Amino acid sequence: MKIAYVASAPVPSRVARSVNIVKSCAALAALGHQVVLLLTEAHADEVEPGVDDVFAFYDVPRSFEIRWLPSPRRFGGRTLFSLAVAGFALRWRPDLVYGRYLRACLLTCRLGFDTVVELHSPVRGRRSSKAKRLIALARLRHFRAFVTLTDAMRRHFVMLGLPGIGEHNVLHAPTGAAVPPATTEPQPLPRATSGWQIGYAGGLDEHKGAMIAVQLAKALPGHDFHLMGGSEEQLATWRAQHRLPNLHLHGYVPQAVLLRYIAALDLCLLPNQPNPANPGAEPYTSPLKLFNYMALGRPVLASDYPELREILNPDNAVLVDDPTRVGSWVAAIEGLAPDRLARIGAQARHDFIAHYTLEARYRDILQRI
Q1: pTM to 2 decimals?
Q2: Structural domain of residue 322, as residue ranges?
Q3: Could you read off the pLDDT of 233-280 as tens digits, one per residue?
Q4: N or C: which end of the chain has fewer CB within 10 A?
Q5: How many CA atoms lie within 13 A of 36 on its CB side?
Q6: Is 253 helix (H, G, I), strand (E, B) or coil?
Q7: How many helices (H) and strands (E) does the chain have?
Q8: What's the rounded Cα separation, in Å, for the pair 98 and 75?
Q9: Alpha-carbon distance 246 to 193, whole Å?
Q10: 216 and 303 share one domain
């Protein structure tokens, strides 16, 4: 099929959604589809400077096309982008528009193109502009489905009772990740102890839980803790505030070598915390790094939240039942034995290959629509 993938995200960029979007297009291309990624224009203050090859930056093959369409920040910029997407669709005639940009997808669907929309945030009211667009989209003949990352999000949209939206057209498909190379050579990591190499990959934002890793380094001086991620400004602050011999702040690690860092870890942390920007604590996250951990067969120590339990269980992870308390994490680590780490890592890898590769995700979605 000819697939136009529509998204609003800074590319090239380190942010997780940009990584996932680009790797999703690579997965669709690997399935044999002709893919064009349509993006909002790259503003200089949002993208990674000095990137000459976007495909190399994301460590994906040059198997699809990327186009940046006009989306000025002034009033009307979103409408202009949506019109540009529609214009491209009329010229290229895709068999399917797969999008994360509701306004543009509504327009392409009205023009007669089969359209799938991936939803990443809830509706804040039945009368909101988002709800009205969802209803309008669901009524169109060429609308195929909504896709959510978690079953909790799927239930949210089904239970809203919006006209035309229900069990029949809201699908659940976890984020997934690309299959790593058959052999991933572990990256040699600095070591200050003779204990485990424990690590976290992701942003240093409060709700990601990176501070848990810092507190664990203080509480467990017999193990090394590695953090991969964070902006230069964040790193400067954290390095000044947290001077611990067993805490290693690596900063941003390029996609091409990130898996090598993860492969070198004995235990991976997924310490998600309540999001201050999401006070209702809606359980809609599907963290990309979790699937990177699982893909490499690394044991995962994770916050015990309902949305993560859609993927994790006591056989493929260690779940921390009170993730806001550092003591809960300390107790979980101290209670682990090497043989259990090996078992849960192997099961995590098995579950990933069986259910959570990006290619399997999109193959399943395309079959279900």
Answers
A1: 0.91
A2: 197-355
A3: 999 999 999 999 999 999 999 988 999 999 999 999 999 987 655 545
A4: N
A5: 16
A6: coil
A7: 14, 13
A8: 25
A9: 7
A10: yes
